[in-house]
Amino acid sequence: MAHRVIEIDNKAKGFYVTTPIYYVNDKPHIGHAYTTIAADIVARWHRLKGQRVFFLTGTDEHGEKIAKAAAASGSNPQEFVDGIVKQYKDAWEVLNISYDYFVRTTDKKHIEAVSKFLDILAKNGDVYKGEYEGWYCVSDETFFTDLQLKDGKCPECGKEVIRLKESTHFFRLSAYQDKLLDLYKTNTEFLSPKLRSEEIINRVKEGLKDISITRATVKWGVQFDNDHTVYVWVDALLNYISALDWPNGDKFGDFWPANVHIVGKEINWFHSVIWPAMLLSAGMNTPEKVFAHGWWTVDGKKMSKSSHNFVDPLDITKRYSVDALRYFLIRQMPFGYDGDFSESAMKELINSELLGALGNLVNRVLTLAENSKMSKFTGENELEAKINLTVLEGHMDAIELYSALNEIMEFVRYCNKYVNDKKPWTLEGKELEEVLYNLLESLRVISILLYPFIPATCEKIAQSLGTDKELSMSLINCKFRNEFGDKTSKGDLLFKKV
Ligand code: MSP
What we know:
Layout: E1 15-23, H1 30-48, E2 53-60, H2 64-72, H3 77-94, E3 101-104, H4 108-123, E4 127-137, E5 142-144, E6 162-171, H5 177-186, E7 191-192, H6 194-205, E8 211-212, E9 214-215, E10 223-224, E11 228-230, H7 232-237, H8 239-242, H9 251-255, E12 260-264, H10 268-281, E13 290-293, E14 296-298, E15 301-302, H11 313-319, H12 322-331, E16 339-341, H13 343-371, H14 389-397, H15 401-422, H16 429-449, H17 455-464, H18 469-472
Parallel strand pairs: 1-2, 1-12, 2-3, 7-13, 12-13, 14-16
Antiparallel strand pairs: 4-5, 4-6, 6-8, 9-11, 10-11, 14-15
Helix pairs in contact: 2-3, 11-12, 12-13, 13-15, 13-16, 14-15, 15-16, 16-17
This protein binds 5'-O-[(L-methionyl)-sulphamoyl]adenosine.
């Protein structure tokens, strides 16, 4: 079967998607897996479109929190972080994360980029020396004023805060209020999704204070101006350009600005306000979009060490499957909103949708094809119009992953209905051939469209259909082409009832 191979336009700007870089004080949990899977879906979708993609993830390894975690475990910080980084890399391999590069803030090239960038901000007059006095939450690595504290504790995580009074360097964030408001106005997609944009705009309108960007009492990090260490958040944000080899090489020119930084809502401020202000100060382009998604609770409660309710994604994949987890995380709530993780909800989705709708369709169609004893299927493209690629692309481009998945699953359900209505087991000859043609072509298209979400399952479907998985996985192969069907084979069941 001849597949069309998409020609990649090497001159067009590449598509750049990032996850936050995760703190390596502990192993990954379901929240980290969520962001990373979402970014993986976006990356895979853009590869299906034939774009050159750079998908970045990595780890945030400096700062007081990590230094303390290392000390508590009795190891030196570098040894400590190396051990946890491995756990992240292993987890992403299991979860089928197709990242192109894994950045570490302890990488030499990252450290050099941080120093270089701060020198530019200083040269541009946006860095000055002073003294910081206020509160600091080590767990969130965030400064707070008296007014921001909640009952004397961190307003984000509820933990104890410490009082800081130390010499520092400030970044002139206050100078960027108007420029930021301009950015939000001209690029209406920058603050995504819409439900989170107002909060940021209002806070910026209230006025911006200069921020402390170095710590005098922390040693584990990038050194600045002799006896200071760069504030871990400034260090961390720069990963998005150091990973592209900024200021050297071609990658930066090829991929910057980022098309989307996918982050959790609690770190939206750093990405939507501080990061673009830093870039504007350095005279660089700002990202196209910051998408801040919602939070998972577990059985209604916030995940925390003290509640002993951290969900380990690897544990879930052992008991269900990688694709079941990937599917559930996206299908449970619209991307952007909060949701609750419960295994009973996950079981229900596996049984009703992965097994009941998708697995059932694949199994029925392949059994019929096998029993029909025909070697070639042709017919009119009766089902093709039922999948609206334009709507789907609109959802995917806006990172409405839930709606996109819903759209594809509607088509799966329609195909099941088509089987029920046509009753192919009662047909023969040309009539049977036509129905099977439509169903096999539909399955082939479904295996392409669902591929970003549940890649391993889709590769199995493609294999059962006798298509070449490397060549077929491209959006230009989503047209029914009257060419289908030399050899299909019924593989193992895709999903089992749980
Ligand atoms: N190191 C910073 C990010 C620096 S990016 C320049 C950090 N790291 S983190 O390890 O705490 O990871 C935070 C991210 O993990 C969140 O932004 C979110 O993407 C994900 N999640 C962590 N807990 C989560 C939930 N309970 N639910 C959903 N995602 C959450 O912050």
